[in-house]
Amino acid sequence: MSPGLKGTLAAMHRSVAEPRLPRVEGVLGIGLLTTLLAFIPNPHLGPEGFAVPKEAALVTLAFVVTLASRSLIARRFDRLEVALVCSTVLGFLAAVAARNPWVAFRAAGVTLAGVAVFVIVRGLDDRGRERVMGMTLVSVVLIAASVIGEAYSVIGRLAPPGRAPGGIIGHRNYAAHALVIGFPALSMTAMKSKSPTAFFWCMGLTLTTSAIVLSRCRAAWIAVLVIGALSLVLVAWKRPRFDSRRILICAICVVAGAALPLLVRPPLVWTSESPFVETSRGLFNHDEGSGRGRLIQYAATLKMIADHPFLGVGPENWANAYPQYASANDPNFRSLDLQSVNRLPNSDWLGFAAERGVIALACLVFAACAGARRLWRTLKDQGGTPPAITGITTLVTVVVLGTFDAVILRPESLLLAAVLLGILVPAAGRNVPGGAVVLPNRWAILVIATSLVFVLQVARVVALALVRSPDIGHRELAWRLDRGNTVTGTRLAQYWMVHSRCDLALPIAETVLQREPFLAHARTVVEVCRSSQH
Fold first, then answer.
1. pLDDT of 213
2. Looking at the whole model, is its pTM more than 0.85?
């Protein structure tokens, strides 16, 4: 073989085995925007019209970026990443034994996608992480702009009834979670940036603050108070190098953003005359309203964990098991609704233990502690660098939000947390070739796993697009593509029962009850059809 040809082949091999980082960064940037923008504009679909496309977009991003990042995954994993991999594997094991394996494998796949993005982002070089950080913060500002635009009727109504202003996220609470996760990094960037980008980041900080206030999300407000106090302590202790004038400008932007909704009330339908005052007064109220409902839910979830300590009930199977533990006056359980319990629990950490087991939660806690330890060392060794302070506050933000709501169980918040923490938490052994810690060929296994989850997510999106079709054939196809959707199955069974086709309705309703035994509507179909057969 000639030297020229041999050199060409060697160059081709390097281009496949070690793709150029800008390509990975571009895929991450496009994937971020796609995941945040993805939704099906059908008001009848409710929250699923936003959650399902975003989950599919996140899994697609993980699949594509994994294909382009073989060299980044081949490096040696540190303890943090090993713990995350172990937690993810336990999630898939829990899915095998779940009552509703369809939704369990999809939910475990979403977690896998988030972990894959986190690992790949940590493998980027400094310039690559800086570019991805910029694209991520642009996405955060886009969320804030869409929330404000919906609140003030600039872009029309996007969120389902009772969920506004959610903007492109589709729910005010979930939008607030995403914004607060990005808030520390956005603040740091606004204080460090120079003209002409400084104006954009300062305006983005103003918009983000306004959107958080408009959301009236108590978990988000509590998280802002916590990270604000923590930031003041860390800055006073380490005194990082910031321009005092820039700090003053950013403070003015935050105050202006918080004041805007108070001075110009948006045309939203609120039951209170002073909604912001009411939210602030009830910030820590656990005697009534959603605070009381959370405590009742937490008590029931702890019982669930005690009954299923090792592998839990299966990812996203918490809602199927919850009615068994609900008390008589539990406000979280609506027995006459097609979806009797919200899909996700109001706590990441209790939900994670209930769905995937206490060992999976312990792995997650270990990973968080390892990340916090790495950031703390960086903070001490490098004299309080702004990225270390931002990393600590971002990690604390995720922990606080996850205590009161579902955050890392949601695709958009999981993606933002994975990218930002992947950038901010230093990786041990970065760019160390080979040295597989967990699996002999992690890249191939990750490609296969993400591709299988990608197929499940595509089927779910197609089913969601067909489920409201007037053609019964389309609805039957939707049920065949997504056998885990008990709402779709129940509606289809009711349709056939009303049309005196119990031979078709009964098998569907029985399948639904296998997935969700406490669903009253499906049980009614079974009882009516069985009585008609006798």
1. 95
2. yes
